[in-house]
UniProtKB/TrEMBL annotation:
Protein name listed in UniProt: Iron-sulfur cluster assembly ATPase protein SufC
Taxonomic lineage of the native organism: unclassified sequences, metagenomes, ecological metagenomes
Keyword Kinase: no
Keywords: ATP-binding, Nucleotide-binding
Keyword check for Nucleotide-binding: yes
Record-level Gene Ontology MF annotations: ATP binding
Length: 84
């Protein structure tokens, strides 16, 4: 099974974010995957991604480990948009 979660964190308060994180962490495993689309790192305080991908101009312009999300939070998307 594979779930796509597109901006699930939009409009959620901190308690709801934690609840979403708890559910995803309980369900994830070798037989179940998630594609989580977000613009913010706050959901990632509860879900540790296996991989992070940056999309710009309709394509993946950067991929990396979970630390890439922290880099984006610190530096922003501009460097990746220019690369697109």
């Amino acid at each position: 099974a594979f779930a796509i979660m597109d901006e699930t964190d939009s409009g959620l308060d901190i308690d709801a974010l934690k609840m979403v994180g708890d559910v995803v962490n309980a369900l994830r495993g070798p037989e179940r995957g998630f594609l989580i689309i977000t613009h913010y790192q706050r959901l990632l305080h509860y879900i540790k991604p296996d991989r992070v991908h940056v999309l710009a101009g309709g394509r993946i312009v950067k991929s990396g480990a979970a630390g890439l999300a922290a880099e984006l939070e610190k530096s922003g998307y501009e460097q990746f948009i220019e690369a697109a």
